[in-house]
Design a protein that fits this description.
The protein has one domain. It is 59% helix and 0% strand. It is flat, with a radius of gyration of 13 Å.
């Protein structure tokens, strides 16, 4: 596995790892019907918004 891909599997690097995994698992279980997985996508989107996007950048600020 490439270093970048391996690092994205690390919860210290990717704070939304569980939400990402849940979205992928939902797609697998529902034959890639995105409509059925919309709640998982929304949770992932909200997680990314909380940790990564300005003005908070809580995750980035905490790990510098």
């Amino acid at each position: 596995m490439p270093v970048v891909a391996r690092s994205m599997r690390d919860p210290d690097v990717n704070p939304c790892l569980s939400e990402s995994d849940a979205s992928a698992r939902c797609l697998d279980e529902n034959n890639y019907d995105k409509e059925r997985c919309s709640t998982h996508f929304l949770k992932y989107k909200n997680c990314r918004k909380f940790w990564v996007s300005p003005p908070g950048c809580l995750y980035v600020r905490r790990h510098l």
